[in-house]
Amino acid sequence: MSDNLTLPAQQGPADAPSPTETLLEVQDLTKHFPIYGGFPFKRKVGAVQAVDGVSLTVGVGESVGLVGESGCGKSTTGRLITRLLEPTGGKITYAGRDITHASRKELAPVRSEIQMIFQDPYSSLNPRQTVGSIIKSPMEVNGIEPAGGREKKVRELLELVGLNPEHYNRFPHEFSGGQRQRIGVARALALEPKLIVADEPVSALDVSIQAQVVNLLQQVQKELGIAFLFIAHDLAVVRHFSQRVAVMYLGKVVEVGDRDSIYTRPRHPYTHALLSAVPEIGIEDGAGEGRERIRLSGDVPSPISPPSGCRFRTRCWKAQDKCATEEPPLVQLSGNRAGHLTACHFPEEPSIEARDEDVVMDPALKALEEDAD
Amino acid sequence: MTTLTKTEDAAAPTGADSFLSVRDLKVRFSTEDGIVKAVDGLSFDVERGKTLGIVGESGSGKSVTNLTILGLHNPRNTTIDGEIVLDGKELVTATEKELEHLRGNKMAMIFQDPLTALSPYYTVGRQLSEPFMKHRGASKKEAKDRAIEMLAKVGIPQPKVRFDDYPHQFSGGMRQRAMIAMALMCDPDLLIADEPTTALDVTVQAQILDLLKDLQQEIGSAIIFITHDLGVISHMADDLLVMYAGRAVERGSVREVMREPKHPYTWGLLSSMPRLDSNIDEMLEPIPGAPPSLLNPPSGCPFHPRCAYRDQVSGTLCTDTRPPLGEGRAAACHLTAEQKQTIFIDKIQPRLR
């Protein structure tokens, strides 16, 4: 699996991958949303470079996390992979088949194998349909008649996700947020998919309910061997769920690797900043003691005109001239584990221990802290 | 300010030393479906210069409490009992005019979503100047200088130019900074921050939290910090109040509550949250069920339908009697101190590191 990772630009040669290998391979995936303006005839005046050259792989039965801040293109990547959006460039290979620009007809068999779980359990279920027909409809669309009938299958699914099968004829409004998300999971499982793209599946839920859904997804993943692309902004949840993690910033993957590498030996400054920004529950004296403190300045730049070279350079404390002119390639740095790739000219030390001096980029914070000293 | 001096002499007996004191607060909304008991017998104190954190899930009454302190509820369908004393002034019975004097002046609020909390129609500068001109009787020029000073303080680049911008020209993090600047215009003694970072990205959240903390040290105001994120609260607060179904279930200093939580709900919250250093092989331990409806809250202890340790309490105490919350460090639970100790050491502590 790791071989596929080291060379993101390589061509996917395999016609039929062996079952233990890559299920999904994404190369250089790009999505630019055009912006039209001008008068009297609207012309294309620019593009939102939502996703700009993303490469990643998902193995059979593997769970890959995709983290990043809002606007970094993680959801767009998910939608491109499920082909809910048409890619501008790049290549998506699913089980050896190129589905990048596959037609509706060609996609039909693949669509039943790639399912999606959405963020908002309120808007992703049709309020006019009963739970039964919501879960049943993927089977109807794909003309699948499971042994024992569709209704029986739906009841089994309801039971699997921890809902009462008797609730078959109820409507979504009769359920709470966590239960609705379970319905969404049941719907995604109806076609026995091989890959589920879960786009922030727990972020709309209450804290005490989040854990219920995370556990359910984990159980589904382990028992049914379904591969997951888990998109979330909560680093702790992603760590809990994924074996491999990709960190995105402004349409690009800046670091990818196995869970341990990303969370304990990150190399990219952005990964360091992200991890240090997570407010941890401090059981010991003082919160987050022993971890480095990095405070970036400002917000993520606009993806309409992203910074040249390395996209993180405008907020990076290590940025130099080289960063503005040359885009760092996503490569394996020396001393890193196989499969741990970083796109940075001046990588950080592989440690998240507290530094001698905090990195405080924010001017207001800096001023206040200097006053206090 | 003359109206403020006419306070009743009979100040609250318990809230004498604290700056803000809330006693037995009950807030009820009458709706088509019945009466919603949004807050049901809540008491707490906030000291000057300290931060009180309030955690709870959606619908636990944390936001309603704070809107009530500011007097921002709709009087037509809301009934309020109990007392709220801010610096010797009773707020529940205060007239709208008296409250107007306090809002934005002595107490200010930072809302969750800065895009909807700021008016899209006026420039940021004008929205910042308004409270200062109203409460301090400052001229337009003075207010502008003050606004630019505050914008610079919260870290908005080019504050002079940005003064004339509209909220939509600001990014999410900058809008929240502008909100903080607005709240701090009149040096409020009490700042209520209702989920101020929930809508923000983690890196921006970290900036805003640090900024609030540093500003508090400089200004010395009391902060009520509302959030559902235990990580944020342990970073920000001195004291902590855990709310469930409109009631406080646990109170103490942040360190006490995080180190040795005493209420089953707090246990549940702590062990259901994944952390960056938790054991990955262990499944999360969610709280079963869902938060109750406040139209018809459970009898007795509101947490009893979801509580894993109910069987350790003899008889029907949990379903019949509402456990009281004592003064100081306390948890509203029928379990005895020894039982809590045993459960905590056996089941909870191993999960917390």
UniProtKB/TrEMBL annotation, chain A:
Coiled coil: none annotated. Residues 24-275 form the ABC transporter domain. Keywords: ATP-binding, Nucleotide-binding, Transport. SMART domains: AAA (SM00382). GO terms for molecular function: ATP binding. NCBIfam families: oligo_HPY, PRK11308.1. Belongs to the ABC transporter superfamily. This is ABC transporter ATP-binding protein. It comes from Streptomyces thermocoprophilus.
TrEMBL record, chain B:
Keywords: ATP-binding, Cell membrane, Membrane, Nucleotide-binding, Transport. InterPro entries: AAA+_ATPase, ABC_Ni/Peptide_Import, ABC_transporter-like_ATP-bd, ABC_transporter-like_CS, Oligopep_ABC_C, P-loop_NTPase. Gene3D superfamilies: P-loop containing nucleotide triphosphate hydrolases. PROSITE patterns: ABC_TRANSPORTER_1, ABC_TRANSPORTER_2. Residues 22-270 form the ABC transporter domain. CDD domains: ABC_NikE_OppD_transporters. Its main location: membrane. It comes from the Bacteria. It holds the Pfam family ABC_tran. It is a peripheral membrane protein. NCBIfam families: oligo_HPY. Belongs to the ABC transporter superfamily. This is ABC transporter ATP-binding protein.
